Amino acid sequence: MAKKQLKIALIGYQFMGKAHSNAYRQVAKFFDLPVEPVMKTLCGRNEERVRAAAEHLGWQGYATDYRQVLDDPEIDIVDIATPGSSHCEIAVAAAKAGKHVFCEKPIGNTLDEARRMLEAVKAAGVKHAVFHNYRKAPAVALIKRMIDEGRLGTIYHWRAVYLQDWIIDPNFPLVWRLDKEVAGSGSHGDLGAHLIDLARFLVGEIEEVSGLMHTFIKKRPRSAGADGKLGAAGAVEGELADVTVDDASLFLARFRNGALGTFEATRFAQGRKNHNKFEINGSKGSVVWCMERMNELEFYDATDPEGLQGFRTIQATENSHPYMEGYWPVGHIIGYEHTFINLVADALRAIAEDRNPSPDFVDGYENQRVLDAVERSHDSKSWVAL
Amino acid sequence: MAKKQLKIALIGYQFMGKAHSNAYRQVAKFFDLPVEPVMKTLCGRNEERVRAAAEHLGWQGYATDYRQVLDDPEIDIVDIATPGSSHCEIAVAAAKAGKHVFCEKPIGNTLDEARRMLEAVKAAGVKHAVFHNYRKAPAVALIKRMIDEGRLGTIYHWRAVYLQDWIIDPNFPLVWRLDKEVAGSGSHGDLGAHLIDLARFLVGEIEEVSGLMHTFIKKRPRSAGADGKLGAAGAVEGELADVTVDDASLFLARFRNGALGTFEATRFAQGRKNHNKFEINGSKGSVVWCMERMNELEFYDATDPEGLQGFRTIQATENSHPYMEGYWPVGHIIGYEHTFINLVADALRAIAEDRNPSPDFVDGYENQRVLDAVERSHDSKSWVAL
Amino acid sequence: MAKKQLKIALIGYQFMGKAHSNAYRQVAKFFDLPVEPVMKTLCGRNEERVRAAAEHLGWQGYATDYRQVLDDPEIDIVDIATPGSSHCEIAVAAAKAGKHVFCEKPIGNTLDEARRMLEAVKAAGVKHAVFHNYRKAPAVALIKRMIDEGRLGTIYHWRAVYLQDWIIDPNFPLVWRLDKEVAGSGSHGDLGAHLIDLARFLVGEIEEVSGLMHTFIKKRPRSAGADGKLGAAGAVEGELADVTVDDASLFLARFRNGALGTFEATRFAQGRKNHNKFEINGSKGSVVWCMERMNELEFYDATDPEGLQGFRTIQATENSHPYMEGYWPVGHIIGYEHTFINLVADALRAIAEDRNPSPDFVDGYENQRVLDAVERSHDSKSWVAL
Amino acid sequence: MAKKQLKIALIGYQFMGKAHSNAYRQVAKFFDLPVEPVMKTLCGRNEERVRAAAEHLGWQGYATDYRQVLDDPEIDIVDIATPGSSHCEIAVAAAKAGKHVFCEKPIGNTLDEARRMLEAVKAAGVKHAVFHNYRKAPAVALIKRMIDEGRLGTIYHWRAVYLQDWIIDPNFPLVWRLDKEVAGSGSHGDLGAHLIDLARFLVGEIEEVSGLMHTFIKKRPRSAGADGKLGAAGAVEGELADVTVDDASLFLARFRNGALGTFEATRFAQGRKNHNKFEINGSKGSVVWCMERMNELEFYDATDPEGLQGFRTIQATENSHPYMEGYWPVGHIIGYEHTFINLVADALRAIAEDRNPSPDFVDGYENQRVLDAVERSHDSKSWVAL
Questions:
Q1: What are B222's strand-pairing partners?
Q2: Does A227 have pLDDT greater than 90?
Q3: CA–CA gap between residue D233 and residue A69 (Å, rounded)
Q4: Within a 10 A sphere around the Cβ of B146, how many other Cβ atoms?
Q5: How far is A263 from chain C (nearest CA, A)?
């Protein structure tokens, strides 16, 4: 008997669009799902490009305006993978059109946008998911399981960094990710939001923060964006213009459960490519994870025999580990793209079972509350309670 | 304009069949190929299973006898992903039928089979490829590039291990990989063949070897294979029967270029899951690679300033690294399955350009010559020249 | 010709006393010094214990009151290795007595004490040194050299943790290090002071801080200290009493040169034994060092050829590396105690050459200014400028 | 009450002489010994140098002929730290003189010498020890304890390398270690002997071997040795002369208990400084140790809960770990020199208790039997039984 189909429209076909497309294409090959995902429509503004992308990425058709897919009664899910500035408008409209809404993170460029998006999906009664994909790395999911089993005991410390190095050169141009109007913020929302999500997933809600945001290189040469525009009327390519987002964002946090946290997101850490790393210290043990070696985690078990204790490297590639049953034998590692496949598997299964996916817009909204509090802490040079 | 199509038939749908299928399905999404691969026929003996597998893995149709696909004039490529005992028969027949032949490693269960396979493809003038996939890990391909650029200088040492731990339990049953008639050998051909290929690829041809092969657990309980058979007439499930292959295979080697090598393949190394690791020491530098962290390599450059020398960990995930242009941004790692995608990309491109893929049956044959020499060295307890 | 002698009196013979004694005993065996250190007097309050310690640790004699050594005209250097509460009194008296003063860190328990100590040595015109020994690890000194050579370029980030795990058990007793009157503070002054010194040594002066200090376990059982006392009149062994120091201390910092810093000191990080670790990111490169592997450092050189960049592990054990000429061949590592030997070698050589050692009481005082600012930031929940 | 004294004469004051001297000087500071070691006489042929060395290294006196110390009735122990060519003569004479004999490894330059040395100490009834110091690294001693406790189960594999890189430059001169008459062999006896000792200590006796020895650079420029001689009558400094020892030595082994082993010693591994590393795989677990991080070991415990297994890094610096009680707190690492201190502590305690130290000349002799068998295997190109 044929499975029920879920027909998807994806908005955006750059980096995230490619990752989402791959996830929809591959998910049923590695997971035994109760539904069949159908890659119906890819949506983008430039017809020539979106047509080529749709064909290349495996979509049945394409559209040049997101309203077209909202009008298509066959579409079940609208997945938003555009820059942050358009998330809110599309998500609210999609919810009103009765579509389930999936969205890249951070869900909005401001806390207000995030709130409106959450209200919209709630009002419409549609399902919603946010692409905090790193939760779905098997090693991270294993850590979650270990925490839930009590293997870390009471958590005392969270310590997280997300380090990259791609804009250290002062001649690196003013791409959209460095434009506050499009991106909302810099490292803060791009990288820091991932750390916040992992912290909320693994440790719990944050109570108060003290943070700082900083821009090391304050002017950069203009360059045309993906839309061929320079970001300002009358702008000249190559002229120096203001960087309007942070290069680095750091904050201290107290969690509601009493744990202390440090968070640091920067694009100015030479040699760190995608160094999304955290350590958790609890009364009974500690764990460490880093995206660059995403198939591994380190675990210190304080209940091991005395004298034989140490951080052990667990390869989270056993069939018994989260998400790994459908992939390869132990030690045959998976990669970045599989975090998206795993997320999509979870989300599609949730929808098939009439549950909401996790993480969802509530997570997106709570995440944005932390981002917002850090910005206010930076402005006030003091602690801010959430 | 539509690209020329290459229509593929795959024989076998277990572990390797799944990995090959994924490669054909994904290759055109990450590589801009001059041809379009078409997944036409999946072939297996059990109709019910092969039909389900074909649908699940993305094949247009299926067949229950490999001769059917040889008779299909549309098929361009026959890819053999069955246990070693059937490679020779299928490959020779496919070559005679004028098909290009791709084959899992080791190409034959004996040197004689490998020779007949090589002669068959040469006689037929068809293209041939062997799935020594680890060559295609970006980090390994980068090492090859570095060696070709002279960055290691004269090579003195090759040191390789392939360590696994899945049959240490004496109650682990007598699966087909432990049956010489089906598998040809144990760790030797399964794991050691990979090390030999990497050594030949990176260092050069081997001149002489001194080796030993050993079976630690000499009897194991019988179990039904994938074909539902117990491997011997009148056999009873669970009764102890002889393990007919090696658990471990070790050898010393001298390369033609004067380098010295050590090779060790075993399934008895607790904690080592897929620990395919090598180190090369040259006059100007050294490199280390391990499959379990396949996106990385370590490089010691003796030409670095004195006092600042050290092994550096290169993340082979830059766009400029081999095979990485079509994947993800730097630091967003890929996994095991991508070695197959890369291999298939190379092989399809070669066929489109009327070149032979690399590695090919010559590599498969030369590999088997080393495997064979080690076996003879074991028997004679002395060095054996190739 | 006999070398000039420098006669030393050491106050204290516990952990630090043992480390200092070893340094004086060994320094002339590994370094060619212009002076001969003479281990004249060990000083402690318990005569039986100090006599035994003096004999065991290699001192010529002992004293039971530090005033005795101040009265001894032969003594050139008074080295203070007692708990922080007695540093100020002894140091001021020693300076007044015309002795050179060496002191463990942090030099005082309060900023006021540190100021008085600095004023005393300046007024007396004596030499002064503080035992921030980690500066003297060869790998750290090499990093300093690399920074001075410009190999890191402009420094953007300092990221440091000092993690231990020895008091996580709530039944761990109220030892002197957990008593504010004796120790001054907890992790803050014990561990954090080391991080501050390393930051000042390698990055520069700190401009402002935002910090928090926290005590996870607020009451612990009383236990008798080294002096046999329970810390309060009428106290009963085993009864719960207040922990008066911090278990963890964290702060964000801005350096005068524009770099951003994070600092975290805790005794609640399971599995971290003496995990004194920092990372520095500059425009041209990054470095990482950890005390637990103190002979190594990691260095990322952004000027390496593109595609071949990576963090390299430098073993700072070459003869050409700082302090290593007199030890062992490369790769034959040294240990914790050698940081003290190196510090003493530097300090004795400075005194022989009529220079002040480095680090000195100015460093001790500046360090305490940062410790003090963090405490005030904690109290005010806002940034504090230095 | 004063402890009984053991008076020591040390022959040789180069690298090993310095390491032994340090051990005798420090041993009573870190260990509570039943005897008091007295550093009475340092012996060397060049009076000026040995006098300076004796003073610098802390010896009471010196001698220029080893016979002088044999004639000194006060000397209890003669410790031989000269190049291998003089070991046998001195050791035999010392034994005949009734002295306890300590000796650097390998004890002789030939199997015949080793046998004569062993016979001499047995005939004389004196105590004997050999400086296989790496046994005495706390992490190695901990591994021994773990094996004895059964934590590894049945041992299947031993895998060891000792890699250095100091003679790769073809212009590196013909020092005494490259002269067979003085050194006996090259990497084989210098490095390989250490691996053999560790294997015998941890795994057991070796039954048969198949090996090869190789000299990559066959001629090097002559240089004057420590004795100012060029190694041959009429030799000219800088002229090319034959290297008479191996640059690399590799062998496979079968142990009596059924384990398989690989051994590789080389001075041609770029980037490897003192890379003395082994891995042991048993039915219940695996361990890894490397001298360059000598305070750590990796341990895989197959009895850990499924899904939570992994190699853990144990810092062998707890007070409860072998030899560590007298040193520093956990995580405050020790270095190379402490292996000698630990060895001397064990040896002196053994003599005080009228036991023979371990390892002793029996170990030295058994070690040499393996070295000899590998040489014969190399010559015969076949396996050689011991």
A1: B174
A2: no
A3: 94
A4: 22
A5: 9
**Distance of CA D228 to CAs C50, D220, D224, D231, Å?**
50, 18, 5, 9
CB contact under 8 A, B216 and D251: no
Q: Quick one: which of B325, B300, B205, B313 has its CA closest to B258?
A: B205
Coil, strand or helix: which one is B119? helix
CA B71 to chain centre: 28
Query: D361-380 and D193-202 are packed helices; what angle lies between their axes, rounded to 10 degrees?
Result: 120
pLDDT score at D231: 62
Q: Neighbours of C (≥3 Cβ pairs closer than 8 A)?
A: A, B, D
Contacts of B24 (CB under 8 A, 6+ apart): B8, B10, B37, B39, B58, B344
Which residues form the domain of C65? 4-133
Instruction: Say if residue D80 is in the same domain as residue D153.
Output: no
Pairing verdict, β C260-266 and C155-163: parallel
Closest-CA distance of chain B to residue A128, Å: 26
- Determine, yes or no, domain membership for C361: no
- Split at pLDDT 50, 70, 90, the class of B227 is low
Check B56 against A29: CB less than 8 A apart.
Answer: yes
Torsion of CA D12, D17, D20, D26, to 10 degrees: 120
Q: Which residue has the tokens 């440091």?
A: C160
Q: Which positions 212-251 of B are in contact with D (Cβ < 8 Å)?
A: 212, 214, 216, 248, 250-251
Strand A275-282 relative to strand A155-163, pairing: antiparallel
Report the b/e string of D360-381 with b at 16+ CB within 10 A.
Answer: bbebbbbbbbbbbbbbebbeee
> Rounded to the nearest 5°, which phi and psi values hold at B274?
-145, 55
Q: What DSSP string describes C69-120?
A: HHH-TT--EEEE-S-GGGHHHHHHHHHHTT-EEEEPSSS-SSHHHHHHHHHH
CA A73 vs CA A12, A46, A89, B25: distances in Å: 20, 23, 19, 30
Q: Which residue's structure tokens are 């094996």?
A: D147
Token output for D265 = 């010693």
- Confidence category of residue C223, pLDDT binned at 50, 70, 90: confident
Question: pTM to 2 decimals?
Answer: 0.97
Q: Are the beta carbons of A383 and C383 separated by less than 8 Å?
A: no
Whether residue C319 is contained in a domain is answered as yes
Based on the fold, state whether residues B229 and B279 are members of the same structural domain: yes
With beta carbons less than 8 A apart as the criterion, state whether A275 and A269 touch.
yes
Residue D315 scores a pLDDT above 90: yes
The burial class, CB within 10 Å (0-12 / 13-18 / 19+), for D189 is buried
Q: Examine the domain organization and report whether A166 and A82 are in the same domain.
A: no
Q: Between chains, do B142 and C299 touch, taking CB under 8 Å as contact?
A: no
The confidence score (pLDDT) of residue C371 equals 98
Digit-coded pLDDT (tens) for C148-195: 999 999 999 999 999 999 999 999 999 989 999 999 999 999 999 999
Does B170 reside within a domain?
yes
Count of structural domains, chain B: 2
**Structure tokens of C2?**
């006999």
Q: What is the CATH number of the domain that holds C317?
A: 3.30.360.10
Q: Is residue B348 part of a domain?
A: no
* Selection from A212, A211, A213, A275 nearest residue A245 by Cα: A213
Number of A–D residue contacts, CB under 8 Å: 51
CA dist., res. C255 & res. C260, Å (int): 6
CATH of the domain at B99: 3.40.50.720
**Residue C376 phi, psi dihedral angles, 5° rounding:** -70, -35
Looking at the structure, do residues D161 and D82 belong to the same domain, yes or no? no
Residue-by-residue DSSP string for B277-334: EEEEEESSEEEEEEGGGTTEEEEEETTSPTTS--EEEEE--STTSTT-TTS-STT---
Whether B127 and B143 share a structural domain: no
Instruction: Select from D133, D161, D189 the last residue of a domain.
Output: D133
* Contact by Cβ (8 Å): B33, B4: no
For the residues B338-360, what does the mean pLDDT come to? Answer: 98
In whole angstroms, how far apart are CA C251 and each of B306, B384, C189, C202, C374?
A: 37, 66, 13, 18, 7
